[in-house]
Task: structure prediction
Amino acid sequence: MRLESPLPPGATVGILGGGQLARMLALAAAPLGIDCHIYAPEADSPAFAVSAARTVAGYENFAALDAFARQVDVVTYEFENVPAATAAFLQSRKPVAPGVAALETAQDRINEKTFISSLGIPVAPFAEVSDLTSLEAALARIGRPAVLKTRRFGYDGKGQTKIMAGTNAAAAFAEIGRQPAVLEGFVAFEKEISVIAARGWTGEVAVYDVPENQHENHILRQSRVPARIAAGVADTARAYGERIASALGYVGVIGVELFVAGGQVIVNEIAPRVHNSGHWTMDACQVSQFEQHIRAVCGWPLGPADRFADVTMTNLLGAELGRWRELAAEPGVHLHLYGKKDPRPGRKMGHFNRVTPRQP
Ligand code: AMP
Result:
């Protein structure tokens, strides 16, 4: 279903997933007078504490999904692994944004790369892998080093392994669980950047400034804006983000992760949702990515994506949550904690934005 007309204040956005992204979406919806109903299987989901309504049920519980659909005006989600049948079921009852096409493209790395290349946008050389024979053929074609990734359900470096000159192919395939996979050429990048863009039901687009992202152990550590890249690189990245969103008929905020290598801009992957590398927008832009997503899915006019400050966003992982007191005392630091109880190593517990006056 499409959204026929803008949802008025008092409407309810249904969100699949109850993690920090859903929590920050609900917090951004509140000043617009929009309520959020969170649907998540985990009874201790961080978003529940700040939302008007909740459903605790599995994503394949169709009776619960039906009841949820009746109580909301539009459905969105905070993670890309929403089962296809769940999205299709909801879409037959209420508008779902981003739509099923965006989900299906982003959920499968082969579909994703094929789609992006079809738009004339560079991706790393890649080949489909279904068994050891096809992996060996792919290695012969693409060469080493290469990265072997599961086609589906990979995130934060999970489900992927690097294949170096001496790596045994069978061992690498075993490491990712012998699942259908993609082999990608290793990109010797100078920088990782991303594009956070929003597109509305009527096709209008707003694109944020490009952050420069630093990962540690495959997990985002820091995003810095402005990125230390040439203006032409930023323009190219933004244009790619806009082209991808438009080609998908996308509604909502999209994150596109890119490499900069030898001055070339290469797309790594797309995330059909608000994105960790866009958290800096909360304190450095007139309208954050979270408010922008709510505006987009509700059919409201998109807000300005202009940035009024320079900013570094840093994730607080696991026990780093313990820094809250020191960070709360630091002028120019905006602290965002997710209310998670268990600070497991590597778990995203919060982030902070260190904001400084915008340099010309
Ligand atoms: P992904 O799960 O695709 O987002 O990959 C996680 C991280 O692994 C990326 O942010 C890169 O730092 C690294 N990576 C992934 N694919 C490649 C590649 N083809 N070449 C070099 N580094 C990669």
About this structure: The chain is about 30% helix and 30% strand. The CA atoms of residues 150 and 181 lie 4 Å apart. Residues 12-96 form a domain with the Rossmann fold fold (CATH 3.40.50.20). The first helix runs from residue 20 to 29.
